[in-house]
Amino acid sequence: MAFLEIEGLSKRYGGLDVLKSIDVDLEKGGFLVLVGPSGCGKSTLLNMIAGLDAVTSGAIRIDGKLVNDLHPSKRDIAMVFQSYALYPNMTVAENIGFALEMRGMPKAEREAAVAEAARMLQIEHLLKRRPGQLSGGQRQRVAMGRALVRNPRLFLFDEPLSNLDAKLRVDMRTEIKRLHHRTGATIVYVTHDQIEAMTLATKIAVLKDGVIQQVGTPSEIYNRPANLFVADFMGSPAMNLLEAEVAADGANAPRMTLRRNGAAPITLRVPETKVTPAMTPGAKIILGIRPEAITDEGSADRSAGTLDTVNVLVDVVEPAGADTLVVTNIAGKEVIARLRADAEARPGEMLQLVFNLDKAVYFDPETGIRLQ
Amino acid sequence: MAADLPAGARSPIAARIVIYGLLLIFAVFYLLPFFVMLVTSFKTLDEIQDGNMLALPKNPTIAPWLAAWGTTCVGLTCQGIKGFFANSILMVVPAVIISTMLGAVNGYVLTKWRFPGHRLVFGMMLFACFIPFQSVLIPMALVLGTLGLAGTTAGLVLVHVVYGIGFSTLFFRNYYDAFPTELVRAAQIDGASFFQIFRRILLPSSGPIIVVTVIFQFTNIWNDFLFGASFASGDAAPMTVALNNLVSSSTGVKEYNVHMAAAMFAALPTLIVYVVAGQYLVRGLMAGAVKG
Fold it and tell me: Which of the residues A5, A103, B46, B163 has the least number of beta carbons within 10 Å of its own beta carbon?
């Protein structure tokens, strides 16, 4: 049985369905990331797990026990808020120790616990300061210390890194991951940043409009997105999604064609293993292919089974240091390819790109669901 | 450049002169009555009758102050205003403390523990701020009579608390509305109770608004005449009513110096509150500004 179980959970504000029948669970020691665009209900879901928002219907169980109507302080959880929510009138030590004080822990024990948490987060030198005197990264650490010191059964993080600058965010991300490994804590983490989701999670739940789109490991979500929304949302740059048509004469070697404006259509092979019953000749499909699966001759994965070469007109070249992004136009849509850093590509010139079709996924254009 | 500089420098100075000149005129205009009160209270009656209001006292004496405090006749008793001053203190201190505390709790509930209909409740409290004093006199008298508090200082405290809650709630509600709700949620998860959150998280951050409310309530309640005159008569009357009785009594010689000294006594507490608390008010506002 999973440690955290959410079953048919719904939330209604007035006449508005914020969450619709959410089912997700998390094993002990797991790291669940709830990700989605703003307004998708991910923070509401977290607040419901915390007990800060009431449950309209459904069940939340922690360690087998129904907690729907349990007060937040009785759920044995700790939460790190987006704004950190440090008490401005208390010192760092008092902030970290507040929950222990409220639970009536004796002073000496409390101080030892605070010192231990501070040592773990390397904020011992800040204990006597007030939150107003700390930098963003330090406040973030204090907020985590406040959660850690309680040693709760479940940690909840509500977009904890979104107020930090880019560099600090990457550092703190690593820090959180390290903390997870070291403590073996069970964590539910909300973010709108798909990179955070990919790097931290053992399990990702993608939400949109209060509905779970897909639950899976980061690799499942990335490589086998359940629908067009997940495909588009996860990954940066986003997955290329191109309209294609299954070729009529593909009896022995399945193929698809992509129309182009003012150029001959492109024909790409469909690997045998990827063919689905829906791919009847003439059927419209959407080809999904990540930028890194479209690359230059030199960087192509030679072990791949199905590599097709296409000549395209380069539109924009974006050197990113580690690699170079090339934007071109196929089937009326922008297509981004990821080339090696020193690839020869100039805007306005023709370029040969290799499509690794082993990595391609296909979607139904009507429903948006992945064909399988 | 060299030619521009003096011209550029002169016009701000001219502007300064105009600004400070105007400020000085207004300051003198507003301070003049106070000045007359002050100098008159230190003059002898003979000197006042000579007629030069603005002149400084030739033989300064504190006799009028002593008389006003201890021996002058208010109505039929001749024990000065000290008893009435004490009445006012006994009225204003509990009334300010209670109305400020209730306002703070109301503001806390109306922003952080919202319940269905919280807007209506707040709207009705706000409405209380706009009801004219006169229109509640008779209902209030009935209530005080029923409670057996008519004509007592305790009754006045009740009246001022009831009337002050609207304002103090308004102040605290607007202040707490900007107070981050996440702090309250964090404290809830940390296991703090309703009053623990209020006392440990909100109150320590409420300095500026407490000062504002105290100044406002203190000034209003101390200076109130209508409720004092209506609900507390005789020995229970507050300072303002006693001052009126002293000044408007029509027998004997008008002791202007004593009247002025009594008026000074009546104005003193609010002055002190402004000077002392005003400092904290500015300090509180500055601290908030720096923290951002």
Answer: B46
Locate A334 and state its tokens.
Answer: 């922008």
Cβ distance A99 to B189 less than 8 Å, yes or no, reads: yes
Tell whether B182 is within 8 A of chain A (Cβ): yes
For residues B202 and B176, the answer to whether their CB atoms sit within 8 Å is yes
What is the three-state SS of A130-187? CHHHCCHHHHHHHHHHHHHCCCCCEEEEECCCCCCCHHHHHHHHHHHHHHHHHHCCCE
Q: Edge-to-edge, what's the strand order for the sheet holding A31-35? A: A77-80, A154-158, A187-191, A31-35, A203-208, A211-216
- CB-based contact A59:A229 (threshold 8 Å): no
Q: Do A102 and B196 touch (CB under 8 A)?
A: yes
Structure confidence by residue, pLDDT tens digits, A37-93: 988 999 999 999 999 998 999 999 999 899 999 999 889 999 999 888 999 889 999
Amino acid (1-letter code) at residue A122: Q
User: What pLDDT, on the 0 to 100 scale, is given for residue B57?
Assistant: 83
Distance CA B282, CA B292 (A): 15
Contact yes or no for B185 and A52 at CB 8 A: yes
Angle formed at CA A80 by CA A79 and CA A85, multiple of 5 degrees: 110
Rounded CA separation A266/A259 (Å): 6
Cβ–Cβ below 8 Å for B190 and A52: no
My answer on whether omega of the bond before A237 falls inside 30° of 0, hence cis, is yes
Token pair recorded at residue A254: 């399945």
- The DSSP bridge partners found for residue A99 are none
CA distance linking residue A211 with residue B172, whole number of Å: 39
pLDDT exceeds cutoff 80 at B59:
yes
Quick count: other Cβ atoms within 10 Å of Cβ B99? 27
Residue B272 dihedral angles phi and psi, to the nearest 5°: -60, -45
User: How many helical (H) and strand (E) elements, i.e. helices and strands, does chain B have?
Assistant: 13, 0
Contact list in A for residue B201 (CB cut-off 8 A) is 87, 89
Q: What is the pLDDT of residues B75-95, one digit of tens each?
A: 777 788 888 899 899 999 999
- CB-CB contact of A325 with A318 (8 Å): yes
The answer regarding whether domain A4-227 maps to CATH 3.40.50.280 reads: no
Helix (H) or strand (E) holding B82: helix B82-112
A240-363 is a CATH 2.40.50.140 domain: yes
DSSP bridge pairs for A214:
A206
Domain boundaries, chain A: 4-227, 240-363
pTM above 0.90, yes or no: no
Residue entry with tokens 């997955």: A239
DSSP letter at A264 equals E
DSSP state, residue B201:
I
Domains of chain B: residue spans and CATH = 4-70 (no CATH), 82-291 (1.10.3720.10)
